[in-house]
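ingest -> validate -> predict -> emit
validate: passed (alphabet ok, no gaps, 161 aa)
predict: started
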Amino acid sequence: DIEQSEAGVVLEWTTVDEFNCSHFQIQSSSSVKGPWITKAEVLAYNSSGINEYNSVLNADGDIYYRLIQHDFDGKRTTSDVLVLNKEGLDLFQVEFKDHRLLINHRGAFELFLYKLNGQRIYNYAAMDQLSLDLALIHRGAFIMELRSERGIEHKKMLLAY
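emit:
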């Protein structure tokens, strides 16, 4: 697990029946694709049963984290990428103004609009910003999916004009 606290970024993980495990390397990045920077190394308990670990890191703006388990024989296992969900963190700035949907994001992104039954009705690709005339869309309830290399966000949209 990963979370933001007043002390910094807190990572917690659990292993079971460690054998031949030397240590864990904690890495972070501002992009899911890297580059990855080593923030800390934690010695392994290398014991049977349930082993619980935690580490507190300085909050330096990175939101992507991963663990690499190093064994004594040189083998390495890399965890899935963990995403720090900072409260109030929005990758995309969304605004409705004058019957237009305005989206701002640093870099390339895609917008997908879905009806509540899951049917995709629109797909747009943009760079940095998008302005969509909502008069092109019939009123109703929709799910917006916004995607970029930095993450995915879902938002609800209700058009009732």
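The chain is about 0% helix and 65% strand.
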